[in-house]
Design brief:
By secondary structure, the protein is α+β, with helices and mostly antiparallel strands. The protein is built from 15 helices and 12 strands.
Length: 487
């Protein structure tokens, strides 16, 4: 017993948080091992240690009948396996003369309560968000999908972290090839540690070099449940409040969970606004540079005179000026994210108002360039999940416009479109349902129809069961009549 204690102490580096509790069980020397802060001491003392030490005579073969825990008792023969379980929060029992080490699941640690995620606040709809506890996150999904076909498989990743990753899907909806592909790619991950679910993204994507994300990331269980019902596969990682979903297509960046709790006319307008914001964010700075450098004749005369008067005396060329302003805005954005919350507002005021106004007044920058960049930056945040992607793309478009003007922008758009239509995510076309055109999926595109019209799951996403709503001709006829009356 003394040798076992010394070996465990040595393996854990004489860690101060290693709990060692000697005991006598059935006349034999024994010892409990656990990590401080990862176990429920009261539960362990009352339902494990006390029953075992007071039972006389005692039979190790009937140990499971003596302790009172909901989780089963595990038996391992190798000390290395027991040490891994202890590091994960289990309690190990070593008994003199026993060939096995007994493990008890009396885990307990501090957890963040379920609350609305700060990045996905809503006006209408569920407000629960995922936490850093993977079991809590799995339970949140179970609460929304109360069906035996919800399968949750466990994978352990990370040489040092031994992080638990849960693969979630509906067995009668998700395509088997998608589930197999996810499982295969996870099996090839050999990494020191998985600290957050984002660590898995680059291992899962079809084209990791692409600027566009091919794996969805969400913090709300209602959104993930809706994705599962469409045939997608979700991944939950221990220690991360973000769930990953695959396949992921470009259209999902322009959708929001609140879209399904509002009238379809309002949702259509909102989605078109998001699309317009993305277009403004990408092309407005480039078009401004192209017009000033090459195609100034396309502007109306009065507008052209106004721009000339505003830019007169500016020491920088339109291209350098635009690149400088874009970089300044990106620096301010990054600084506001990393600054303490109470300083962020002051930084925004100093950066956006004082710095911008002073630069214009001093003649270093022109007011149209600052205005164009501000409008472009606002447009970025209409599609918050792709801010980083669009921020880099608009710099690329500005560079193309600086070379050959509007023709350069057209060539850049052609390259971008060709990349999007060839990009795939787990068998789904990234630009679907518009490229290739899938008519049945257009009902939930930029122009959204009411829920009773969505009788089938998206054809763009591979699934086993295409029907998700029983068609009701009476209801559809009534909706058609209401649409005719509105027109």
């Amino acid at each position: 017993m003394n040798k076992s204690i010394e070996k465990l102490k040595k393996d854990f580096g004489e860690s101060a948080d290693l709990l060692i509790r000697p005991a006598v069980i059935g006349g034999r020397e024994a010892c409990f091992f656990a990590i401080e802060g990862l176990v429920d001491k009261e539960l362990l003392e009352e339902h494990v240690i006390k029953p075992l030490t007071t039972s006389k005579p005692f039979d190790l073969d009937k140990l499971e009948q003596t302790v009172f825990l909901s989780s089963p008792v595990k038996r391992v023969k190798k000390r290395e396996e027991a040490e891994t379980e202890i590091a994960a929060g289990a309690t190990a029992l070593v008994v003199e003369g026993a060939k096995e080490i007994f493990l008890f699941g009396a885990k307990k640690w501090e957890r963040r309560s379920v609350e609305e995620p700060p990045t996905s606040s809503v006006i209408k709809g569920p407000r629960e968000g995922f936490t850093e506890d993977v079991q809590v996150n799995a339970a949140l999904l179970r609460r929304r999908i109360k069906n035996k076909t919800l399968v949750i498989r466990e994978v352990t990743l990370g040489k040092y972290t031994s992080s638990k990753v849960l693969v979630c899907y509906l067995s009668d909806v998700a395509a088997k090839k998608t589930v197999d592909l996810v499982t295969e790619r996870l099996a090839h991950i050999d990494i020191d540690g998985v600290i957050d679910s984002s660590y898995l993204t680059k291992f899962l994507e079809d084209d990791p070099s692409s600027l566009f994300p091919q794996v969805g990331s969400y913090e709300k269980p209602d959104v993930v449940a809706a994705k599962l019902l469409e045939g997608r596969v979700a991944l939950l990682s221990d220690g991360s409040p973000i769930a990953l979903t695959v396949p992921h297509v470009l259209l999902e960046s322009f959708q929001d969970s609140q879209d399904y709790f509002k009238r379809n006319t309002r949702v259509t307008v909102t989605r078109l606004l998001r699309l317009f914001g993305a277009v403004i964010a990408l092309f407005l700075p480039a078009a401004f540079v192209a017009v000033q450098e090459f195609q100034y004749q396309v502007l109306p005369l009065k507008f052209l005179i106004t721009i000339i008067n505003s830019t007169n005396g500016t020491p920088l060329s339109p291209t350098l000026e635009m690149v400088l302003v874009l970089l300044i805005f990106d620096i301010l954005n990054e600084a506001s994210v990393r600054m303490p919350r109470y300083v962020g507002m002051a930084l925004s005021i100093v950066g956006a108002i004082v710095l911008g106004e002073t630069a214009v007044s001093a003649g270093l920058l022109s007011s149209p360039a600052v205005l164009v960049t501000a409008l472009s930056s606002i447009g970025l945040y209409l599609v918050p999940d792709d801010v980083g992607t669009y921020s880099l793309l608009r710099l690329a478009f500005v560079a193309a416009a600086a070379l050959i003007g509007l023709i350069g922008i057209i060539f850049a758009v052609m390259i971008l479109v060709s990349h999007l239509v060839t990009l795939q995510s787990f068998g789904a076309n990234y630009a679907s349902p518009y490229a290739p055109l899938t008519n049945k999926d257009l009902k939930d595109g930029f122009f959204k129809k009411e829920l009773p019209y969505m009788v089938s799951r998206p054809e763009s996403i591979a699934n086993q069961n295409p029907t998700r709503l029983k068609k009701d001709d009476f209801l559809l006829a009534r909706l058609d009549e209401e649409e005719r009356d509105e027109k």
